Amino acid sequence: MATSSRLVTSLRRISTPRVAPSFQRFRFRPANQIRWITAASSEPHQPDADGTVKGAPAPAKTIAFTSEKYDVQRDSKYAQLSEDHVKYFQELLGSESAVVDGVSKDATEDIEPFNSDWMRKYRGHTKLVLKPQTKEEVSKILKYCNDNMLAVVPQGGNTGLVGGSVPVFDEIVINLQKMNKIRSFDDVSGVLVADAGVILEVADNFLAEHNAIFPLDLGAKGSCQIGGNVSTNAGGLRLLRYGSLHGNVLGIEAVLPDGRIIEDLSKLRKNNTGYDLKQLFIGGEGTIGIITGVSILCPQRSPAVNVAYFALESYEQVQKAFKEAKGQLSEILSAFELMDGRTQRIVHDVTGKKMPLDGDHPFYVLIETSGSNADHDSEKLQAFLEHVMETEIVSDGVLAQDQTQIQELWSCREGVTECLGHWGGTYKYDLSIPIAEMYQVVNDLRDRLTEAGLLGKEDSPVIDVVGYGHMGDANIHLNIPVRGYDKKIEKLLEPWVFEWVQKRNGSISAEHGLGISKKPFIGYSRTETMLGLMRQIKDTYDPNGIMNPYKYI
Amino acid sequence: MATSSRLVTSLRRISTPRVAPSFQRFRFRPANQIRWITAASSEPHQPDADGTVKGAPAPAKTIAFTSEKYDVQRDSKYAQLSEDHVKYFQELLGSESAVVDGVSKDATEDIEPFNSDWMRKYRGHTKLVLKPQTKEEVSKILKYCNDNMLAVVPQGGNTGLVGGSVPVFDEIVINLQKMNKIRSFDDVSGVLVADAGVILEVADNFLAEHNAIFPLDLGAKGSCQIGGNVSTNAGGLRLLRYGSLHGNVLGIEAVLPDGRIIEDLSKLRKNNTGYDLKQLFIGGEGTIGIITGVSILCPQRSPAVNVAYFALESYEQVQKAFKEAKGQLSEILSAFELMDGRTQRIVHDVTGKKMPLDGDHPFYVLIETSGSNADHDSEKLQAFLEHVMETEIVSDGVLAQDQTQIQELWSCREGVTECLGHWGGTYKYDLSIPIAEMYQVVNDLRDRLTEAGLLGKEDSPVIDVVGYGHMGDANIHLNIPVRGYDKKIEKLLEPWVFEWVQKRNGSISAEHGLGISKKPFIGYSRTETMLGLMRQIKDTYDPNGIMNPYKYI
Description:
2 copies of one chain form a homodimer.
Chain A: E1 46-47, E2 53-54, H1 66-69, H2 83-93, E3 99-101, H3 108-115, E4 128-130, H4 135-147, E5 152-155, E6 172-175, E7 182-186, E8 191-195, H5 200-209, H6 226-231, H7 239-242, H8 245-248, E9 249-255, E10 261-264, H9 278-281, E11 290-297, E12 304-312, H10 315-328, E13 333-340, H11 341-351, E14 363-371, H12 374-390, E15 396-399, H13 403-414, H14 416-420, E16 425-432, H15 435-438, H16 440-451, E17 466-470, E18 475-482, H17 487-493, H18 496-503, H19 528-541
Parallel strand pairs in A: 4-6, 5-6
Antiparallel strand pairs in A: 1-2, 3-4, 7-8, 8-11, 9-10, 9-11, 12-14, 12-15, 13-14, 13-17, 16-18, 17-18
Helix pairs in contact in A: 10-12
């Protein structure tokens, strides 16, 4: 791991490892140690690979039904599931473990994990879960459902944040967990071909053995599946460096509602022969077909990783630092994460942990570099840090000396979400906003809640308004920790936040997708023309509307 | 520019600049010096910014009509242009220069440049050219055409290689050259927003002033327009490093055939709100709408560039070298270009130029690195070269010491296409093939032509079969220099080449697109299911079929 003996004095603050055990850096965790640390959601509970929730405080049946919470009516065009339907699927899939049948018998306990999500926020009424093993089985299932007007919901690791992979009513769950084979890896081209149900961490560990890296990383990697990642166009921690899945996915294998199989597992970086249809499935959230396989370009794994953490006195300085980092660190910059001072104070207050830097500063930034030569990278990072210190862009900083300190610094960023939940609840928004104005939403909302008398006193219902996130991707997590959920607060938040974002041509869902929770608000980020064109796509490819209904657009 | 004083002895061969004036490296040419050097087409003639051809050996009217060459019939569903139509457009666009009217008067001379391409390969019968200045004008033009069943062909710099931007019959040419403004650049986020008609080189020069780089580069940069680049999903020289336009284009502004305007000039890296429709326009070749604006993520410009050129004894060694380059040069590798020994011998024979390395070797590779620190990059490249020399992956090599030598080495790659035309003609294929088998197509075709008695003797009609191209993108240019075009040869080439590529799941058009020339062969790279889905897209968005007819799918 990267070390450097030539650090500026002021950056040598960390001389001995001070690991707070509750804030380990999970990107380096062993394969069997799974923990949720996605930026916008570090809820403590999580499903394991087959969808069950461990350590949940209450059984799934206590979760409110999505249909009631979102006031949705079942569309009567869909058929009701019968025992005949189940019989067809049992014969088709053969093995008993491939069908969880709650139609001809009571299977509530077995089915509940597939009916709800790990956040305990969404809950459906499904009575049938199917676990196909081949694309042909998926094809036959979908054709049958399409012919019989049976609605379905594709489900991967069920780790989404917007309710996209959980049924609303009695949609049949088509779970991809049994399609979990890595099909091939070419270590010359770096192209991986794998089943959709391969768990992200399994793929990444496999690639590590071949000195390659999956171009996507996120906190849910121990449970989420690559097919789900592609279907939701997951963003995550490596986007700044490796770009989005729209650029990295080379091909897909997918099944359309009418059973037709798209065989497009291209291993080619270039293929200009017609519309790039796979792109519609990337981020299509299972609404026009089910992805059963993915081919993806995987970069070489970087042997050298450096992490620095520093304080800045204004958002203008943060922007300057980002520009300098892009210029000077350029090809080795792999993360530029922003945390405002309030988030760091909360981490300190809640955990009692000593922070890497003394004093209170309005902004903190964590920088990570990943490259092929540790000495070169350290030298670049050091030159960058010297420059930003000398020009007073940065007022103080530390540079990790070893793996332990790297984890320590990352914990200041990754521990934020967990600490925010300390007082009872947190309203969370995952926003893309052009960088220049990105942080302003935090100040404006703080003013708004203060003026309304909901923030500022010792017993105010709102604890604070904070902002942090992937600065490099112009993606901010606007969080409002509160003593409890309260309609009065909610009325001040929505649609105000969405309107604020719309005025700046931002996105109301940067990386989490639409699912059921953002569906009503898509108009804030897309024009009526765009929505019309999207509906045409949906109607063209899924004319019966059996795919993941009540969601998306 | 990069220099290194610590080179291994065997890599010091180039000690003084030896520039062959006819082979300058054009990526560094001044803005007003335009030359065609795309990998698959270095034909000497070119259109300037307004579509006229300079230095053409014969007037455009001697070019064979595409309709005859490809035996296409005019679709009678399209209306014939009348003087009333022209009057409408004249009133709409106002300025005289915006309408080239060959309907109500003879305007052959003015219109011919828009009716044919710079390769003198495609020629249409248009009688009307429109040059709108705003998206609203484009919208009104298309709506009128759609309502009146008038077919159109969108045209950018008209630099395509497959006849996509040239009319076949009397389609109205909608030329984007008057929409040529750079709208904004944010030097924090690196997002450029510009009109579709901005010339690539103008955009890149503008970005250079802001220390950024357009993520696409190609030989036609002095004439091609960024809207056309996006519409054809151009590949080019920077793809290995910066990825494809599917990853870099953040948003588009486009007009649909019915006049609806898509306002999606997103400046956001992340926006997961619905189907990513812009992707259909990237590489859509103007068949579902006209792109009028583009927003695109532009990386920082690298201050350090190094180039090395070396010889290898087998294609296996080339693959090993590529793998090592990816591993050791990793984040700074910006080109890995393959040239077989025959191409280098031809360059030597045709130009009389002394090649950088002595002796005959079966393969040569050109490597370029681009990074933020010249010393670091030189050190990495040197370590890599020492390794590949010591392990005998590479048998000989040189490393450029200055800008002149960089150009000299690039000329060995970029001069290939021009030299291949020396004997009379060249059959050219632009193929994507998985790297392991990529070069085999050259050997197999050579055997085939030799067995048929067309190659191998002093007076054989086929001079040679050679391969070169973008190894890093698995993109090979299979070229067959001949004494003259000959049906006997053609029968041995097609469909054999396409079948060969199909068997390896390759692409018959890596970066050049379909246009009219590849349309008949798309079935070799796409399944019937995919084609069906593509036709559904076309029918959905362009139900009257007025957009760029007779082409694509």
